[in-house]
Amino acid sequence: MAKLTWDQIGTRQYETGTDHGALFVHDKSGKTGTGVAWSGLTKVTESPEGGEETALYADNIKYLSLYSVETLGGTIEAYMYPDEFEACDGSATIGEGAVLGQQGRQPFSLAYRTIVGTDTNPRAGYKLHLLWNLTASPSERAHETVNETPGALTFSWGFKSTAVPVVTEGYQPTSVATIDSTVCPEEKFKAVEDLIYGTAEKEASMPTPDELIALLKNISPAPEV
Amino acid sequence: MAMSQTASESKRLYLHQKLVDTTELERVYYNPLPTQKLVYPCIVYNDADEIARYADNGMYTRLLMWNVTIISKNAVEASNLQDKILFSLDYAQKATTFIQDNLYHKVLSITL
């Protein structure tokens, strides 16, 4: 029997940062469009909701617990956003450089990276985060006069997700996936990354959860229902 | 080989031109050497601090700060020049005022 040890050199792992945001706006039929780079990303917060317990009692004991479905919400913060995101933020273009607010909001999917570091290697790898079928909520924008303290407006959007179905057997509908480059085989990770961020030959595209599972498990994607 | 102009040099040149245009002084010196003979009234400015903003796991933008010193033999002239700069440049702040070698010095901090 091996004795447990803690905090060995080279095993002190942490996760930090956020970059390489890619936006995939859904079209009217719900298909994800071509990916566009989201520059100026400063923070992505994932806030799972739901999964709350409802306790049922019988025979003077706690008989069983029922749990509500888990959903994903969160916030995106950035110094800027790609033009394509305007459709997701309730803006409709009415002419060059002119938009009308308070319009319908297109759903979107998002991919971004976080750094995985260790005590011996601050860039040991990174995690790819894929978020599906999000809808941005209206959010406050405080425009302030220039004063003696330089500042830049940071945009912030709350979002809610609607889980997309997963046809592959054994999985429930989901809105989120994470792939860790320090664990995932290199060629598989690269295949996912090439898909999401595109290559010189191929446009960036967001895989469905089923396509992702198939790619990572080397199986044919399950047919759509 | 000609060096390409960096973003910080572009900002400095913008500041330089703005100081010249605002004060209508031709004698605007950037980092003058101690041996350089200054003719008054004049403006001397030096690099100070900088503020970095981060996004995408890197430095996204950089705000540069300069200390701008108005030097004049006339106190009213120095104040007028200071006011002109304060009203024409965003993020211009009064820093300090002092007299040295019978010259009025008004120091401003400017961020771009």
Structure summary:
The complex is a heterodimer of chains A (225) and B (112). Chain A is mainly beta.
Structural write-up:
The complex is a heterodimer of chains A (225) and B (112). In chain A, strands 1, 2, 3, 6, 9, 10, 11 and 12 form an eight-stranded antiparallel β-sheet that branches. A two-stranded antiparallel ribbon of chain A has the order 4-5. Chain A has a two-stranded antiparallel sheet with strand order 7-8. Chain A has helices spanning 186-197, 209-217, and strands at residues 13-25, 36-38, 41-50, 53-58, 61-67, 70-78, 92-95, 98-100, 108-118, 125-136, 155-161, 176-180. Chain A is built from two helices and twelve strands. In chain B, a hairpin with a 2-residue loop joins β4 and β5. The two termini of chain B are 29 Å apart. Classes of the chains: A mainly beta (225), B alpha+beta (112). Chains A and B meet through β1 of A and β2 and β3 of B.
Q: Which features characterize this protein?
A:
heterodimer; A: 225 residues; mainly beta; eight-stranded antiparallel β-sheet; two-stranded antiparallel ribbon; 2 helices; 12 strands; 40% strand; B: 112 residues; alpha+beta; five-stranded mixed β-sheet; 5 strands; 28% helix; elongated
- β-strand amount of chain B: 35-45%
Oligomer: heterodimer
For the terminal residues of chain B, how far apart are their CA atoms?
A: 29 Å
Largest interface: A-B, 17 and 14 residues
Structural class of chain A: mainly beta
- The count of β-strands of chain A is 12
**Major beta sheet summary of chain A:** 8 strands, antiparallel
Topology:
The complex is a heterodimer of chains A (225) and B (112).
Chain A: E1 13-25, E2 36-38, E3 41-50, E4 53-58, E5 61-67, E6 70-78, E7 92-95, E8 98-100, E9 108-118, E10 125-136, E11 155-161, E12 176-180, H1 186-197, H2 209-217
Antiparallel strand pairs in A: 1-2, 1-9, 3-6, 4-5, 6-11, 7-8, 9-10, 10-11, 10-12
Chain B: H1 7-23, E1 28-30, E2 42-55, E3 58-72, H2 75-88, E4 92-100, E5 103-111
Parallel strand pairs in B: 1-2
Antiparallel strand pairs in B: 2-3, 3-5, 4-5
Helix pairs in contact in B: 1-2
